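Bug #77: duplicate submission created two jobs. Keeping one. Sequence:
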Amino acid sequence: MQLIPLYEALALDLKNLGVECVFCLMSDDTAQLLASLDSAGVRVLTARHENNACAMAAGYAAATGRVGIAVLGRGPSASNAIHGMTFAHRTGSPVLVIVGDTAMPAASPMTLGPDLKGFELAQAIRATGIPSCTASLAVSARQALTMAYEQARLGAYAYLLPHDVQMSQVDPQATQPKQISAPVASLRPARAAAISAAVHLLSQSRKPLIVAGQGARAPATRDALIALADHLGAAVATTIKAKDLFRGHPFDCGVVGSFSHGGGRRLIEQADCILAVGASLNERTTSYGNAFAPEASVIQIDHSRDKLGRWFHCDVAIAADAKSAAQQLMAALPARRPEDMDMRSAPLRDWLENYDLSRDFKDVSSEQTLDPRRVGIELDRLLPEKRTLVYDAGNFLSIAPYVSVPDPAFFKWTADFASIGMGFGAALGFACASPERTTVLIVGDGGFLMTLSELETTVREDLPLVIVLLNDGAYGAELHLLKMRGMPTALSQFPMVDFAPIADALGFRTATVRNIEQLRALKPLLAKPDGPILLDIKINGTVAAPFMSDGPKPPVPAT
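Kept job's structure:
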């Protein structure tokens, strides 16, 4: 009987599960596992910070639909990654985090000195919301990994691997893991009573609006919703996470809520019945309850009962698969005559078709800075059509309504933990998963400075990435928050950094942009990017993102 180290067996098991790449930052307690993965033919991509390794795994998972894997060390490595783990969990993407852990108590005799990497890992991971398991015995560790991998298909899962366990010698035949059927999310049709109630509201509606969210992004669901909209004479719109799902439809109103544009809002505000499908109707989608007419009735469809009516009221709640429910509604509703389709009048069609997005705002570009909204309109023309957009979080998101994507599958919003700095890692995960496409990271200078080290990762791994850095020399959201409260803004502002020379030194092609002519001159470079590119675009920081004014208004300070 020939024994092998458990870490070697685990590496081979991951290879046999179909894992093609993992994201990591090497530590002494995961070094041998990662070396074994590399030897087994699994691509190992090393980040420069553990948070970014987690974000890379989440981006890869979102891009492919496969399990993204992050391998991290114990103690300080795991502690560094708590933010990234929480982000990965909040995205809902299938991510498996493999974390080195302290040796099991029974195998830890008294030694000189403290364990400098001691850390209550299980408790910390519990705080992120990620379910986990610990490989406490070498004989069952391989089976536990297989189980963890399958559980991760439904959302982030953590596999804790004590150092002494992974160093154990095992019999590769006796410990061979059994195959486990992947858990399948149940897809159920809607109850007849719920469909009947929804039919009643839609039959009374003169101006229905269908709002699709992340849970309705599948192509078959999109087709079912378009068929239903055409059947009813409804306009269509999306949440920010389903951006451009209905691109090309003549009655596409764009994004609802905080990231809407003036053309779509004209129809959205007229709607008398909202059919929300796979959309949680959170504060951004509803502009804190102000996106829809107060008297509009709301029908909400979601496969998760927990999301129904959670953030916004709904008059009819339908727990069902989005596609099935849309088809059931269409079968139960008579087709509406064209003359009864008030939401599809010729004037409204012409309004949407001819709406110029630049009408949304007064351009406040200056001699040295650009209006970020104008940057968005120009980038939409300059970037390759075959592109993926990944957004970091921050005040610069005023650009979001103006840059389109071919399909929401190529759009990644990384504000799931309301934190900046997750975009760079997620963009690298997308670039790794789809090297044939141009991945575009749109990021502010605050989030970029948190993740600047990944410039080296981009070049080292030769990942196709264009970084659009919207640089206002400030934490913009905090600056505008302080302004709204009548307080000094100096602590939110910083000296303007020129990032192009830094990126250039690491192997990027770069440009510093201060006016529209300089941006337009980059058309040949952006049309067919060859290698990583960074654009340091200086923007006017006086432009506040639309969500800054959506929430509850602050009290006026006493004078």
